[in-house]
Predict the structure.
Amino acid sequence: MTAEGGRPPLAETHGLTKSYGGHAALDAVDLQVAEGSVYGLVGPNGSGKTTLLSILAGLRRPTSGTMRLGVARGAMALLPDTPEFEPWLTAFEVVDLARALVNPSIPRERVTDVLVEAGLRDAIDRRAGGFSRGMLQRLGVASTLVGDPALMLMDEPCSALDPMGRREVLDLVASQRGRRTVIFSSHILSDVQEVCDTVGILQRGAMRFQGPLQDLLTGNRTPGMLVRVRDSAEEVARSLATEPWVTSAVAIAVGEVRVGVRSTDEAERELPGALARAGARLVSVRPEEASLEQVFLEMTR
Amino acid sequence: MSLWRLEWLRLRRTWRGVGLLAVFVFFGLLGPLTARYIQEIIERFGGTEGVQVTFPPPVPADGMIQYLSNAQQIGLLAVIGVAAGALSFDATADIAIFLRTRVSSTARLVLTRTAVYAAAAVVAFVAGAAVAWYETWALIGLVPADRFLIGTLFGALYYVFVVAMVALAAGLVRGSLGTMVLAFAFVVVPQVTVGLVSTARPWLPGHLSSALAPLAQGTAEAGDFVRATVLTLAVIALALMAAIRLLDRREV
C-alpha cells in the first residue's frame, strides 16, 4: 500500500479507537503518513490529537484497531506540548542523556550542535529548572533531534514560543521534509499550512479529512472571488446577490466584496457581465485563495 | 550520560543522598550517647520530685539498640520518602515521557533506580551503624566485630526490601505521596499483624531490621535470621518483577 504521492506509508493505522469509559477519544481513525512527509494533524482542543500521537509513541494502548510503524521504537521521537525535564540537569546533560539512551554511538559533539541549532547556545550549561516555557520547548526540540529519529512526533511544538522561536521551529520542521517523517500537531493553522504537505483533520476523535494540503484547500471550500470596486461595496454586493450563480456576496471592506460562487468556472464567465449590470467601476477581480483556517472552520462548524 | 549517572546526580543535586546519610549518622552518634548517659539525662531533665529512677549500668549492646530504635522509625521514613521521590516514575507525566520514549525497556529504568536508592539506603544505614559501633566502643565497650558485621548485613538487606516495596508501590500509584503511604503500609502492616504470631515472626523481613541488637547482646546467632533472609530475597525479587510489569503496562 502507498500513501500520498505514491510514497510508502511510514505510519498507518486502521480503525484505531481509544475509549475512556463510554467516551471515544479516537473513533476508528485511519491514518496514513507517507515516508519523508511533513504531516499536519489539526483539530479543535479535545479532538484526539495528543491521544493519537501518544498511541503512535507507545505511551498508550488503543482500545481496538491496528497500527503499523515502518520504524523501530528507538527511531521515533515524541516532543510533548509542554516538555519538562529534571530541573537539576543542565541543558547539555538533558540532551546528552537523550543521546545516550537512544543511540550511545552518536558522538557527544552532536549534543552541542543540536543545542545551538535549537537556539540554546547561551544556555548550554544552565539548569533546566530556570528555563522559561519557550526555552523548555527548544530543549525538547534539541533532545528530539539528537537521536536523529526517522519519525518525529511533535505535539504543538510552537505553542509556547515567541515569534522568533516559532519562526525557527517552523523552518526547522520544514527543513525535515524528505530527510525524515514528521507528524506535527497544531491548532495554529497558518503554521500547518506553511510547513505541512499533508493534512489530517480530527474532530471529536474522528478523521474528517486526510490528504494533500492542496486537495483540501481547493476541493473542500466554497469557491469565492474577491472584487474591488470604486463604488459602494454594499450596493455592488446587493446587486451581485441577486445573480443565480452567486451563493453569497458580502462587503468585507471599503470597496471590497467577497463573492461566493457555485463554481469558479461559472464565476469567470458571469462575473464581468454582472458587474457591468450593477454599474460598478471595477478595480480588480481575483479568485479568493483559500486558507486552511477557512477550510477548517467550514469543515468543523 | 547513563541512567546510573542520572540517578547519582539526582541523589547529589537534590541533596537526597546527603539528607539520608545525615539522618542515619545523626542517630549513629546519638544512640550510644543516649545509652551511656541515660541516667544523667533523666536526672537532669526528666526527674520527678522525690522519685529516683535507676538504670542498670550500660552494656555495649545498648549503644546499638538505641541506634536501631531510631533508625527503624525516622530512618525508615527517610528511606521511604527519598526513594518514593525518585521511584514515582510517572508523577510528572512530561518527565516520564522523556524517559519512557527513550529507554529500551521499563525494566532498565526500574532496576537502575531501585539499585541506586537501595545502595544509598544501605550506605546510610551502614554508615550510621559504623558510627554507633565506634562510639559505643569509645563510651561503653566493644561489640564483637563479627557480630556487628553480620547484624549490619541483615539490616542492610532489610533496607533493600524497603526500597523494593517503594518500587512496587510506585507501580500501583502515580504520585509520590501515595507511593510513600502505600510503601509504608507494605513494610509496616505485615509486621504489626503477622508479626504478632510468634512462629511467623522469624520469617518476616522486619525481623532483619533489628538483627543487630540480639546479635550484639549475644542472645541470637546468624542462623536465626536465615528464614527471614530467604523470604526477604524472594519478596524483593517478586516485588521488582511486579513493579516492572505494572509500570510497563501503565499508560502515560
